[in-house]
Design a protein that fits this description.
Elements lengths: L1 E5 L6 H13 L8 H10 L3 E8 L2 E10 L4 E8 L8 H12 L2 E7 L4 H12 L3 E10 L2 E11 L4
Parallel strand pairs: 4-5
Antiparallel strand pairs: 1-2, 2-3, 3-4, 5-7, 6-7
């Protein structure tokens, strides 16, 4: 069974697993300074930082912000030895059950990895709806914004 468990204490083994996964899965410029991340995990009520467990084994992480009328997924990662086994899709299904509107950003389709990532989100019900332009260092960057909106029953 897949579980999404919120972490609010950075001194735990669960947090250590997620921090190691985060730093291994994303380039340094794509995550905040770890001291700031730890502060958000422990003190920021609108920031949700989770470990993903499969039958109590840690397999991934997801973090998101609760904003006024949507949730912004900041990071989603599955451990390298668990990739390609549909865990990402299962995690997104659980998130879609709990959250009504989800927004995230992905890199432009400039290489095979970014194209696979976009197709993964599209297979899981996300659609592109705009671009996000930002500065990273001295360079302007652009990402694609994607969303899934679920109507409540």
């Amino acid at each position: 069974m897949i579980e999404i468990v919120r972490i609010t204490d950075c001194s735990t083994q669960e947090y250590q697993f997620t921090e190691e996964l985060l730093t291994a899965s994303f380039p340094e410029e794509e995550y905040r300074e770890l001291a700031m991340l730890r502060k958000y995990v422990e003190k920021e009520k609108d920031f949700y930082y989770h470990i993903i467990l499969h039958d109590e084994e840690p397999i991934g992480l997801v973090s998101f912000w609760q904003l006024s009328n949507y949730y912004y997924v900041e990071h989603l990662a599955v451990h390298t030895n668990k990739r390609g086994k549909n865990y990402g899709g299962l995690i997104l299904s659980l998130l879609k059950e709990r959250l009504q509107q989800i927004i995230l950003e992905v890199e432009l389709p400039n290489d095979e990895t970014s194209m696979k990532r976009i197709k993964f989100y599209q297979r899981n019900g996300f659609t592109a709806f705009g671009n996000y332009i930002f500065t990273l260092g001295k360079d302007k960057q652009q990402d694609i914004l994607m969303k899934v909106v679920l109507s409540s029953i």
